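User: Sequence recovery, please. Input:
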């Protein structure tokens, strides 16, 4: 079974409702589907930046230990299928269609009772629950969409571990314009007497929220801090550091911010070990080294060096700048930037542009995109050499040309929504230039 016109029309109609926070609709839908989410062992992951990386790391370690691991992430960067993976293999068209068909029938029964239909994200989340249940996954890594407390994924009642990645300002339209409010929304995934692993929040107000939520829920809290790592350095393209009894660990995911993410992943694994999951030191070492997550300081080419990173808010920009300062500022860095209009792009530009040699701006293919020329006007407040490109392919061609001429690197960052197009443009340009 593939997605036929009827199922496509169903998804289009559902998509018109936009984003609606709250669990009532999701509870109705999953009730019609047998509440299969209650039959899954789940690690629930929330936060502003780093959720996908954490899921990739924990999933990789669990796979090394021999478990069948389902992973649900959002939004899609390169394809819809990538959101649903079982041991790294994306859902097939037939599997996706079968899940949507079951959900469409459930929605028909809901509508017949005169009740409201779910949102597109609720349907997508229900697809994940059904797919992982049908595939008989041993364990599931479940990433939230928006926030946590009223996110569709928060229908789960008792996760094995609740994981909080880095928390910062983002999605203010839905979560509020205060860091405390955003932290409270994210902390909503913490359940009574549960186990919690969290990246150490630099902001005291966030720590107060997380610690208060854990006290109220009688939940344990384990913090991961980058200061717990020693001897951080680059070695043959790998990020290396030492951590406690684990000795030297190596990461293929090269951003400096991945150190704290990997420590949080280890904390998560330790909490699972305490619940009887059989995971060895060797599984952890090899799993972390093998973990990959496209769009987070992903290297697309080594000559010249071309990297893409989905840094689309202030906190992510700070972490990306830290990575550049660790080992890339000895050469010329050429930027390609595309952002959404509702993001804090002014702060991103202020943080990142002082490290650039030349800047190209583009317009992501997204209804919320900021026009590349408007972005260029803002960028010229912080940098003299800024060029707006009508097409991503043009920006890639120009940036690669400058990098080859100047012996520099290309860094493309900003909205996740244009990274798929960017990756294709880089591959096309490299083939044309015979640089592969």
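Assistant: Recovered sequence (436 residues):
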């Amino acid at each position: 079974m593939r997605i036929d016109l009827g199922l496509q029309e169903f998804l289009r109609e559902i998509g018109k409702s936009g984003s609606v926070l709250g669990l009532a609709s999701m509870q109705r839908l999953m009730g019609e589907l047998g509440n299969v989410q209650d039959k899954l062992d789940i690690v629930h992951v929330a936060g502003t930046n780093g959720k996908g990386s954490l899921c990739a790391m924990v999933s990789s370690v669990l796979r090394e230990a021999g478990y069948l691991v389902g992973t649900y992430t959002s939004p899609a960067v390169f394809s819809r299928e990538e959101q649903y993976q079982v041991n790294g293999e994306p859902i097939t068209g037939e599997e996706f269609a079968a899940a949507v068909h079951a959900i469409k029938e459930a929605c028909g029964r809901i509508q017949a009772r005169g009740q409201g239909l779910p949102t597109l994200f609720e349907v997508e989340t229900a697809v994940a629950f059904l797919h992982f249940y049908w595939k008989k996954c041993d364990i599931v890594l479940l990433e939230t969409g928006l926030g946590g407390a009223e996110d569709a994924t928060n229908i789960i009642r008792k996760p094995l571990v609740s994981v909080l990645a880095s928390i910062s300002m983002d999605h203010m339209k839905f979560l509020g314009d205060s860091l405390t409010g955003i932290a409270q929304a994210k902390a909503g995934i913490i359940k009574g007497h549960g186990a919690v692993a969290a990246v150490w929040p630099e902001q005291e107000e966030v720590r107060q929220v997380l610690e208060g939520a854990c006290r109220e829920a009688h939940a344990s809290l384990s913090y991961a801090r980058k200061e717990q790592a020693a001897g951080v350095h680059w070695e043959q393209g790998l990020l290396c550091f030492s951590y406690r009894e684990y000795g030297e660990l190596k990461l293929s995911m090269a951003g400096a911010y991945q150190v704290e993410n990997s420590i949080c992943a280890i904390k998560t694994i330790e909490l699972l070990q305490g619940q009887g999951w059989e995971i060895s030191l060797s599984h952890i070492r090899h799993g972390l080294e093998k973990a990959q997550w496209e769009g987070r300081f992903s290297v697309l080419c080594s000559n010249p060096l071309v990297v893409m990173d989905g840094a689309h808010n202030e906190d992510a920009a700070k972490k990306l700048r830290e990575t550049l300062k660790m080992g890339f500022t000895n050469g010329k860095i050429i930027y390609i930037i595309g952002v959404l209009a509702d993001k804090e792009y002014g702060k991103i530009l202020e943080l990142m542009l002082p490290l650039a040699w030349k800047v190209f701006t583009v317009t992501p293919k997204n209804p919320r995109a900021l026009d590349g020329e408007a972005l260029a006007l803002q960028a010229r407040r912080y940098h003299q050499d800024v060029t707006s490109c009508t097409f991503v392919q043009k920006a890639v061609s120009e940036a690669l040309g400058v990098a080859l001429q100047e012996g520099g690197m290309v860094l493309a960052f900003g909205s996740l929504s244009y990274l798929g197009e960017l990756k294709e443009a880089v591959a096309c340009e490299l083939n044309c230039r015979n640089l592969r």
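The domain at 5-290 is CATH 3.40.1190.10 (UDP-N-acetylmuramoyl-L-alanine:D-glutamate ligase).
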